[in-house]
Amino acid sequence: MFRRILKWTLRILALLVIALAIFLINLIWFRPWSLNLFYEKVFAQVLFEEPELLSSLGLVERFGITGHNGKLGDVSPAHQQRYFDRARKNLEDLHAYPLEKQNPSQQLSTHILEWYMSREIEGEKYQFHNYPVNQLFGVQNEFPSFMANTHRLLAPRDCEYYQQRLNAVGTKFDQLLESLKLREQKGILPPRFVVEKVLVEMNNFVTQPPPENILATSFKTRTAKIDGMPDEQRATFQKKIETAITDRVYPAYHKLIDYFTALLPKTTTEDGAWKLPDGDAFYAYALRKSTTTTLKPEEVHDLGLREVARIEAEMRTLLDTNGYAGRPIGEAMDALRKDPRFLFSNDDKGRADALAEYTRLIDDAIERCRLLFATVPKAKIEVQRVPVFKEATAPGAYYNGASMDRTRPGTFYANLRDMNELPKWGMRTLAYHEGVPGHHWQIATAQELKGLPQFRKLIPFTAYQEGWALYTEWLAKEAGWYDGDPFGDLGRLQAELFRAVRLVVDTGIHSKRWPREQAITYMREKTGMGEKEVTAEIERYIVNPGQACAYKVGMLKIQELRKRAQAELGTKFDQRQFHDVVLKNGALPLEILEEQVVAYIQKTK
Q: Least CB-packed of 132, 146, 207, 543 within 10 Å?
């Protein structure tokens, strides 16, 4: 009897193993039977081939999957091509699921995924039209920043992974050099200023004694917080890290330095995308992808000019009533920027005071948001200084999202390189944009959505994400957060003017062939922003064509949709419901966002 039961038990187990094997083979190598599984397959394919992204998200560590934390992403041309080949296959598979058999949530997911993959595939012919080593977000400066701020250090195993990643830098940089040389063969070279800046940055990086390098100092600071690790083990790890910096990291950087030193004489001062092969068509594509609209470069340029004029008129009124009547706007804002009333001391105390003020503004905004939003995300946010090694070329501020397991909060990074660039009247708007209710609120809300495919929580659409952050600056004004603070409101308007100016200078550089100096002069004259800050901004637009146009285009679309909902719903309009409609589908192309808002209006009617 026992043998018979054992025999049948083994048969059942064998059948289960076979069924599981068939399921996994179908899931991995073929089109899954289930559309929901297909969504997750597409997401997992990308994620598990990008170990640094997987570490950043913190999705799988809770299940004991940690091996990716010892690896670096593949940046070779072959890996890049595999991405496009897979995207074409996935789009073909997506079309095989009958749309009429999908529920409304699936139809929206399919619509979003189809839009995204189609734009990606459209860009295959331009896949080398970029500069993977640049002064802002290049492989060479993202790596130390990632290791210092994102690579998790919670246990001894994480320390081993840290060392493995340092040891893998040579391979990654060899792949990078292969892709750079391929671009060179195609006539795709960065502007001269980019090469000059990255050479200064990399040379400064490798001249530091290894114990003083951010890779070593951040490791030491963070491992000191690991509970239960013996001091002897901590010291042993520290020695291994410093050795890896000397033996693996610095030689990899020196190879990159040698390449760019030899490349420098071949570069030119031509900055725009127009100089690249088929450059005008590439820039039109970059605008479509970034703005998720069909606006042409000329239309974006004209839109920028109109918005600049409108915002200047509002600023003129505020300046005239607050002691700056008759003074040109740029000149008045420049004077306000230098006014001692609005400056922190340009020292460590001033930097600490600024971080404390940003934290206060965000804490206050979180409380105020309860009146504007039905959904409150759970993820925490903290304020940090931009790492010193990259602050010279970094933007004024940026945001990194929280890990999905909440072991790392969302982080608002403030650039404190020069406190004279940080007038107090501009801080409120920056805190709202980068933190709450801007990027942190939107990204955390998306990450915490239930019942949606993972890609819906993480897919990037710049026009939506940046448009939302800019919309929240205006929303704060509408909600009375600037009441009694006319200079803060001027800061808000200057920030909006800055985004409108971006439409003009980005299209000016890449479509109208403006030299860098002309774009810098225009932005300085219009906004009154500091020269170093403006220069860093213009140089950012040069290495990332079209992206800067997404902000204002996205803001205007969300405002347009809100006005439409208010006009059609009248007293039935509830901004808390409207914000849920905008936020609770995750990031969307603007045309799909409009479809969702129109459906909400019809349903509410």
A: 207
- Asked if residue 352 and residue 308 are part of one domain, the reply reads yes
238 burial type by CB count under 10 A (0-12 exposed, 13-18 middle, 19+ buried): middle
What residues contact 294, with CB distance under 8 A and at least 6 apart?
A: 288
Same domain, 194 and 294: no
87 assigned to some structural domain: yes
How does pLDDT run across 351-370, given as a tens digit for each residue?
Answer: 999 999 999 999 999 999 99
Q: Compute the distance between CA of residue 84 and CA of residue 91 in angstroms, rounded to an integer.
A: 11
> Comparing C-alpha atoms, which of 410, 408, 421 is closest to residue 383?
410
The mean pLDDT value for 223-234 works out to 94
Q: Show Cβ contacts of residue 189 under 8 Å, excluding neighbours closer than 6 positions.
A: 183, 263, 266, 267, 268
Q: How many domains does the chain have?
A: 3
Cα-trace Rg, the chain: 26
Q: Are residues 339 and 202 part of one domain? A: no
Q: In this structure, is residue 67 part of a structural domain?
A: yes
- Secondary structure percentages of the chain, helix, strand, coil, to 5: 70, 0, 25
Pick from 245, 269, 293: which residue ends a domain?
A: 269
The DSSP code sequence of 165-206 is: HHHTHHHHHHHHHHHHHHHHHTT----HHHHHHHHHHHHHHH
Residue 575 in any domain: the answer is no
Q: Choose the final residue of a domain: 95, 126, 157.
A: 126
pTM: 0.87
State how far the alpha carbon of 235 is from the alpha carbons of 218, 224, 225, 251, in Å: 14, 10, 13, 24
Claim to verify: residue 336 and residue 307 sit in the same structural domain: yes
* pLDDT above 70 (res 10): no
Q: pLDDT digits over 121-160, tens only?
A: 999 999 999 999 999 899 999 999 999 999 999 999 999 9
Reference 548, options 304, 350, 266; nearest CA is: 304
SS3 category, 410: strand
**Same domain (yes/no): 208, 230:** yes
Residue recorded with tokens 């949530």: 105
> Residue 412: which H helix or E strand, with range?
strand 410-414
DSSP string computed for 264-281: GGG--S--SGGGSTTHHH
Going by C-beta distance under 8 Å and a sequence separation of 6 or more, which residues neighbour residue 199? Answer: 257, 260, 261, 264
Domain assignment present for 576: no
What residues make up the domain containing 313? 279-557
Same domain, 168 and 70: no
- Chain centroid offset of residue 236 CA: 36
- Can you tell me the distance from the alpha carbon of 415 to that of 60, in angstroms, rounded to the nearest whole number? 32
Kindly state whether residues 179 and 256 are assigned to the same domain. Answer: yes
> If phi over 0 gives left and psi between -120 and 50 gives alpha, with beta otherwise, what is residue 64?
left
What are 156-192's pLDDT values in tens digits?
999 999 999 999 999 999 999 999 999 999 999 999 9
Task: Please indicate, yes or no, whether residues 145 and 107 belong to a single structural domain of this protein.
Answer: no
